[in-house]
């Protein structure tokens, strides 16, 4: 108190608000389950990608059940929240160990390591063209083949999408995009209806692209649809090169999903359904 008495009356220490951290130390350490700390008026703290997924046996045991992270946020001009739609999921089986973090309001940050190089390349397209932040870490039995890892990564991404969307208030709900890539042309239309359905009409001329089994493309989208509750139609309009066809598919899907998850300024936070609710069937 002697030190404070010597300060001028204009000192900010004498006029600190009651919530100032100078006057109020935290009463307890943060919960070990807390992975994102934000102020009511601030976006989440940006961390290095490696901090999202510390790989340890303790972390895997702690995250065996799917989890999600939400952050405080402000309301946008249309009455819908902005900058806070984040899903985080861990899926652990005897075949794979997968961790996914998805930010629907991101900037296109991609950080994927699945052990399947071509799948990592396609997840980069999802982030870049959807403007989502996509962080995927996976370990699987790829010494057998890529099937289980491909499937479980897609299941986890679908679950993070489901959690990040929440009650789906204010979103466009529908997305439609046709993406060209040289001679390939692929059309994607989707509905975040809560009803899982996939119509897949893609003819990939080769059995593999690099080491990736091209049959796994359909299985990836079927798995994602099953956990996200999405109606998804994929149709190839042209194409001869297998790499081009698959990449155009992922680009069209990313753009259509971006349309569907963005907010409709005229809806002002209401559910885009005559039933008044959109939920996973």
Task: Tell me what you see in this structure.
The protein has 281 residues and is of the alpha+beta class. The protein has six helices and ten strands. It has helices spanning 2-5, 57-62, 117-130, 147-165, 216-228, 242-261, and strands at 86-92, 96-103, 110-113, 133-140, 174-181, 184-191, 197-201, 208-209, 212-213, 231-238. The protein has a four-stranded mixed sheet, with helices on one face. Strand 5 and strand 6 form a beta hairpin. The chain is globular. The N and C termini lie far apart (63 Å). The relative contact order is 0.14.
The order of strands across the largest sheet is 1-2-4-3
Tell me the number of helical segments per DSSP (H or I, 4 or more residues long).
Answer: 6
- Mean pLDDT, all residues: 78
| Tertiary shape | globular
Q: Report the end-to-end length measured between terminal Cα atoms.
A: 63 Å
Question: Biggest β-sheet, characterized?
Answer: 4 strands, mixed
Question: Helix share of residues?
Answer: 25-40%
Task: Give me the Rg, rounded.
Answer: 22 Å
Strand content: 15-25%
Structural class: alpha+beta
């Amino acid at each position: 108190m002697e030190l404070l008495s010597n300060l001028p009356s204009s000192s900010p220490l004498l006029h600190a608000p009651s919530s100032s951290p100078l006057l109020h130390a935290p009463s307890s350490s943060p919960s070990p389950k807390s992975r994102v700390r934000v102020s009511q008026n601030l976006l989440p703290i940006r961390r290095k990608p490696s901090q999202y997924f510390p790989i340890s046996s303790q972390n895997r045991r702690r995250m065996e059940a799917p989890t999600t992270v939400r952050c405080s946020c402000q309301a946008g001009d249309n009455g819908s929240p902005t900058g806070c739609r984040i899903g985080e999921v861990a899926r652990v089986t005897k075949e794979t160990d997968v961790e996914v973090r998805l930010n629907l309001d991101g900037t296109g940050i991609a950080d994927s390591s699945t052990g399947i190089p071509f799948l990592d390349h396609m997840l980069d397209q999802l982030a870049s063209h959807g403007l989502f932040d996509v962080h995927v870490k996976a370990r699987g039995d790829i010494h057998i083949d890529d099937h289980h890892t491909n499937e479980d990564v897609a299941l986890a991404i679908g679950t993070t999408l489901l959690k990040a969307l929440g009650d789906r208030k204010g979103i466009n709900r529908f997305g439609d995009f046709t993406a060209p890539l040289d001679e390939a042309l692929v059309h994607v239309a989707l509905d975040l209806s809560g009803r899982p359905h996939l119509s897949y009409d893609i003819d990939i001329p080769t059995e593999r692209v690099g080491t990736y089994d091209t049959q796994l493309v359909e299985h990836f989208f079927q798995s994602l649809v099953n956990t996200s509750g999405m109606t998804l139609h994929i149709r190839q309009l042209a194409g001869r090169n297998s790499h081009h066809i698959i990449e155009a598919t992922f680009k069209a899907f990313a753009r259509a999903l971006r349309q569907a998850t963005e907010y409709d300024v005229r809806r002002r936070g209401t559910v885009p359904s005559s039933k008044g609710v959109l939920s996973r069937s």
